[in-house]
Records
---
Amino acid sequence: MVAWMRILTVGLVLLTCFASPAVAQKYPDRPIRMIAPFPAGGLADVLARAVGDEISRTLGQPLIVENRAGAGGNVGADAVAKAEPDGYTLLMSSAGILSANQFLYAKMPFDPEKAFTPVSLVADMSILLVVHPKVQARTLAEFLALARANPDKLNFGSPGIGTTGHLALAYFMHAANVRLTHVPYRGAAPSVQDLVAGQTDGTFDNPPTIISHIREGRIIPLGVTAKERLPLLPDVPTIQEAGIPDFEASSWFGVVAPAGTPPEIIARLHGEIAKAVRQPAMQRFTHELGARLVGNTPEGFARFIRDERAKWGEIIRAAKIAPQ
């Protein structure tokens, strides 16, 4: 009996060893679904479709983008967290879902540290600090002097509580030791509309939302939150250059799969994404958005997520942003 059990155990191990390469070889044999957990036309949706168009050609199967918005991306992310870990359901995740939402929502439908397997960071995007022309500051130094002389008097809009714009504002106030009044909106569009109209004094937002207003002089850029200047606006200094050391924040988007997805499938998907982000068409497209393509390894992406989670957890606690 013992001998038969040993034979059976060895057989199962061998079967598993031979099965994994077979799974990878036939994957994919049907369409893949990638969930963009925000409304159509947003950055997650745009990047999901751009990446999907590229990798569907090399994978030989359609990649269908499905928009599932709600709860700061948690609704769509939850659908992926609960999907079969077979490589046929993926998530184009935002920074918030993987690094900040667990500190902002009292009840999370999934554990972001355990629910997903990272595939690749696709792109990151600078955030811009901009103000209305009525604000008597044309450099970050002038703005800091004005803000410190008038605590809580300058109103800064954001797309909503817990959004990247809100978190960048909280981070900035903490790092620069200034007090600004946060005005949350329901989305980036109304926030920017009120800024352009002079109803608020400033905001932190991504280039695609505000670049046209900057070029037409309706709002004034004072700083870039990334390590390097933005090629679209080479004369605008980084916030680090302007005097706040080590300040860095960005919007980023990456592909993850449900936890337990076979490593051979993760490796295949990463390889295709890495090739996609090197394509000239993708490079041109994201340059116009003010984004930087990445395409790092699953291991590199996992380390990046851990670092971002620790950073934003500390910032949210320091800013005393209460979970909703």
Note: Residues 128-224 form a domain with the D-Maltodextrin-Binding Protein; domain 2 fold (CATH 3.40.190.10).
---
Amino acid sequence: MRYAAMTLALASLFPLASSLAADTKMMKAVSDHFELYTTDNEAAAQAALTHFETVRTYVLHAFHSQDPFTAPVRLVAFKSAGEYEPYNPKNSALASKAFLEADAERVIIAMATLKKQDYQYGVREYVTALLNKVVPTMPYWLKTGMAELYCTVREENGQIRLGSEPARDFHTTIPTDIDMALVFSLNGGMSRDKGSLDFYAESGQSGVPNAKAGAALANQQASSTVDYPVVLWQLTHMLMFKKEYSAKFGAFVGAACDGSTAAALQQAYGQSLDGLKQDLLLYIKMPTHAVVSTSFRLDKPVTPQVSQLSAADSGKILAALKAAK
């Protein structure tokens, strides 16, 4: 009887939740390359669009690329994490503050908030989507490392600063027995907010090349959890900024996109996987890492066109977001 009563109580909440969603009114703010729908205010919308336009221009310049998106990238952001939570995919990490849905026609990025400290969660998804288009052959580990690196881009007084450690809700020590060859063999499916058991999960989406390798990796890391995206941030940071690697980083990236990482290491640096691993473990132990600055300004200020949506139109945006997850 108690369970029946609980079921009835929960069921009674569903109409209330639907009613709250139906009553939600969002603002639409459109810049040259993004359309933002948010429950936050106009000032927050303009600041966020300025940041995303800045990141877009800087990253495209860094990769000597044209914008690959034919339609504006859609951002859906909330005023609070509580508003965002009903739309957070069920299979995402509990700490997830943004997620990406992309198809041939549209890129949608949902963000928990428009707080400046949370920009990087949405930017990480944007950079991932951009790299998927611009350099589709880039190895998964490098694409992840790049997304972790560029998500921290920030503009300060006409200077772009790059290289800060990404904010994480998950931290632990890095083991010394990282199997670099297996890490480099992955091609998708790792969690950006959890540890190794998600990174190595054996599933159709895991990217583990075969079941035997997946089982070996899961067993290897069963007693410890490692935030592997942070490892990949460290690795990408080292290759880009450590003087022994930085001068040939472009050549290495080109070779890695055309073939295997191990072959690219040998070709660009005359380096083995074991040698790279030893350098990485030393780099991880450094108390701080370089943050570089370069002069940069957008060609023109971002002046978004702002309009208020009706509850019905807001409901359509939220329904599309709900369906996307």
Note: The chain has a mean pLDDT of 82.
